[in-house]
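To whoever is on call:

I kicked off a structure prediction for a single chain this morning and the downstream step that reads the tokens threw a length-mismatch warning. I double-checked the sequence; it's 135 residues and nothing unusual in it as far as I can see. Pasting both halves so you can look.
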Amino acid sequence: MTQTATVTALPDAPGGLVELTVVRQTACGHSCDGCGRCAGRAADLVIRASSDIPVCLGDRVEVCSGGRVVGIAALVYGLPVVLFLLGYLLPVSLTEPGRYLCGGIGFALGLVVAVLCDRAVQRRAGISYRIARRL
């Protein structure tokens, strides 16, 4: 996954991480400045990225994140839905309200697992970013 960012701070030591500001995009793929349909413009995201190329303050760069982002998104969005469906479809001997309850419990369990995995990822240095090229 690649995003466009602006360099906002340079590292003090060689080989350090560059601080970048990424303008959050909406699901429709553009910023909310001219649209007016979104509830509001989301705050910019500040990240740190490694850089193999020389950059200066104010440079616009393309940032790549590791392949783990897709896996984490699948876990966060997919696991609760899968557990809901399993909780609803597997207990065929239960009445309809009982199946709804099992599905709801499965969904809640999926959310708990997603939150615990998110916390574990944040403790282990989170998601790594790398500057791919200057724009």
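Update from on-call: the warning came from a stale cache, not from the record. Cleared it. Sanity check on the structure: The first strand starts at residue 2 and ends at 9.
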